[in-house]
Amino acid sequence: MDRRQFIISSSATVAGVALARVPVWGQQPAAPPVTKFEELRRGVGIFIGNGGTIGYLVNGDGAIAVDSQFMNTAAICVEGLRTRAPKGLQMLINTHHHGDHTGGNKAFRPLVKSIVCQENCLVWHKKVSEQANNVADQAFADLSFGGSWSTNFGDEKVWARYFGPGHTSGDAVIHFEKANVVHGGDLLFRRVHPRIDGPAGASAVNWIKVLERIAKDHSNDTIFVFGHGADNSVRGTKADVTFFRDYLSAGVDHVRKGIGARKSKDEITKVSALPKFESVTAFNPRLTLEGTLGSIYDELSK
Ligand SMILES: [Zn+2]
Predict the structure, then answer these.
(1) Mutual orientation of helices 238-260 and 289-300 as an angle, nearest 10°?
(2) Ligand 1 is a single-atom ion; what residues have CB below 5 A from it?
(3) pTM
(4) Which of 11, 95, 154, 165 is the most buried (most CB within 10 A)?
């Protein structure tokens, strides 16, 4: 190998390693996963691993999971829920179609009676997997709903509700009524810059209304589970929900003002922070304030 070839192949290796270690949407990182189960209230809890937060309910009827992360951590979650629930894992609910919430569906599929999601989630899940040519790695929902869906499970009542476009165009809010716990999937980002999936029909403008509704429908005692959060802290309160609503509102106002003043997209999006929201960080190098404002710009200038 000559020197030039060596440099090319070693930089390719370095790039390969760097790529494998950065969690990319829809891809499975290589590092061994660190995982944790955390009980919240009345049989409802969260599983932290790799990707969007998994929520769960364990009671006399078995277990229900909300979202599935990627295959490597999904398998650990499935095992943990099986040992916690003598009646077994009965159901999986997907909050939306993104790979870090549905990539582990196949680990649940042989055990659950049904996989539930909002109807637009199912459309997008199929569409993006066809585009990525990885349909064989997926397990799609077999039960989808439009506005809302609910089930009685042991001594709990579980709801999935749809409030229109937000993070995507098929986000469901999962409500464990008696435990008073809400799993908001990626409608809830806790003090980190969100992804706004414009190509999948997301809307920052409607997302603000959805967050308004989520806050209004629940109490100060409600425990909110966030899809992602700063320092992997994904448990929050109504105040964290309204903080995120206010962050998105500040973003939309900032972009509107910029467009009104005939500024370019670059001038509008290349700012270091939104006033009062300087503490919001990037939990993923791909999700920056510039990206958030850019998505809002694309939506408003359509
Ligand atoms: Zn997402």
Answers:
(1) 60
(2) 98, 186
(3) 0.89
(4) 95
